[in-house]
Amino acid sequence: MQARKAVQTVNKNRALERNKKYPIFASVIHKIEIADFFSSNKPFIDVRSPGEYAKGHIPGAVNIPLFSDTERAHIGTVYVQQSKEKATELGYKYVNPKLSEFIVQSKKVGPEGKVAVHCWRGGMRSRLFAEYLHNNGFKDVSVIVGGYKAYRNYLLRTFDIPFDLKIVGGYTGSGKTYVIKQLQSIGFQVIDLESLAKHKGSAFGELENVTQPTVEQFENNLFNAWRKLDYSQPIWLEDESHNIGGVNIPMNLSIRCGPPPFFFWIFRWKRGRSIW
Fold this sequence. Notes:
Elements: H1 2-21, E1 30-32, H2 34-37, E2 44-46, H3 50-55, E3 62-63, H4 69-81, H5 84-95, H6 99-109, E4 114-118, H7 124-134, E5 140-144, H8 147-158, E6 165-170, H9 176-185, E7 190-191, H10 193-197, H11 215-226, E8 235-238, E9 243-244, E10 247-248, H12 251-257, E11 264-268, E12 274-275
Parallel strand pairs: 1-5, 2-3, 2-4, 4-5, 6-8, 6-11, 7-8
Antiparallel strand pairs: 9-10, 11-12
Helix pairs in contact: 4-5
């Protein structure tokens, strides 16, 4: 618990620094820190472009993009080659025809008029989208301070906490995944890395007809499972290399998982019997 509080203190200090950089939102729009967002249980909207969302997003976020990938690229070009004012003008030109559809889609996400919104850094895209929702009947709208970037930083710092990790080791085919699933079934805290990676490990490879997530999305999915655990209790993992197929375990966690000693090692006899 002390480790969790220490990380939360660091995050709040960083939030104070962000508040100095970003303009104050309209009083009707609430700002919410990423650490507090997880306990809010609000449905949430990711207003980044489809390409940004596909690369990696907060699990559970619904993508209602303010701009298409092509539109976002065009705005960025105008910003660099002409001016911020011209880019903003172009942005409004792209957005205005979509406004009514934004409300329709947002009501599906938050039918009770309560939603959280984020973009890449919690800046203009999310602020304007949130204000538009409020002006059109949404009674409780929050913007995630620092946006998706703050979420990613929070995620990676979390894996620096000194967890009590228990590693199940063994040769390929010895039944490590079976042991992990049995531990989970009787109430132990377990993270099934191969399941999250959509991959069977080095020898067995990809799952049939299943595409692995991006590296970034794997980290997001891993954190989404991890943050729900009790950090004061042991956390069980199967021994894995840094790479699981095409995805990677976050380096700060991977270093903590190895090298041996393992909590226990599975030996399998030729006839199929295992000794733990």
